[in-house]
Amino acid sequence: MLDYPDPEQHLVDYVTRSMQRYVDGLQQAGLQPTETLLQALLQRTLEEAQADYLRKASQVHTHNIQVILSDHTRRMNDLKRSGARLRLQTCPLLALGFGLLAWYSLSQPGSANLVMGLCYAATALALLVILILGAIFDRPQS
User: Fold this and answer.
1) Residue 140 pLDDT > 80
2) Backbone phi, then psi, for 108, in 5-degree steps?
3) Cβ-count burial of 98 within 10 angstroms (0-12 exposed, 13-18 middle, 19+ buried)?
4) d(C-alpha 142, C-alpha 70), whole Å
5) Interval 88-116 mean pLDDT
6) Taking the model in full, what pTM does it have?
7) Confidence band (pLDDT; 50, 70, 90) for 36?
8) Using 50, 70 and 90 to split pLDDT, how confident is the model at 11?
């Protein structure tokens, strides 16, 4: 992360550079500096220095936010990958187990076994839906 520029040092540096540039321009043009001209140049320089400081501070702010967000995105992607591995390891095995329980319950006579078989089958389908929806919606971002 970047540090924000020191406002006082920025102002001193900017005014020094800018006034030197204006003095050189006046000397090349062959003009004599007057009090009004110097006041106008100083006012303009202060406004430019303020705008330049705000621009640099905004760039530092944007850079620091991007650093924070990139770190956050990287950590979120790691979590999503580990969650995907966990879903891939557990959901198919659990769905298979509940599918076998559903097959066994539905093959037995009686209404209680029918209800339990349907519950087992619904659970197996829900686990497969979790696996599929997790793959669709929980993808790592670039």
Assistant:
1) no
2) -90, 145
3) buried
4) 10
5) 94
6) 0.57
7) confident
8) confident
Give the range among 36-40, 47-51, 83-87, 98-102 with minimum mean pLDDT: 36-40
Q: How far apart are CA 60 and CA 95, in angstroms?
A: 51
- Residue 123 buriedness (CB in 10 A; 0-12 / 13-18 / 19+): middle
- Measured between alpha carbons, how far is residue 9 from residues 44, 47, 49, 139, 140 in Å? 18, 16, 11, 47, 43
Amino acid, res. 34: T
Whether residue 19 contacts residue 45, with contact meaning beta carbons closer than 8 Å, is answered with yes
Q: What angle do CA 128, 99, 81 make, to 5 degrees?
A: 30
- Cβ atoms of 124 and 102 within 8 Å: the answer is yes
Residue type present at position 140: P
CA distances from 41 to 14, 21, 22, 61 (A): 13, 11, 8, 30
In this structure, the number of other CB atoms found within 10 A of the CB of residue 31 comes to: 10
Beta-carbon contacts of residue 98 (< 8 Å; ≥ 6 apart): 120, 121, 123, 124, 127
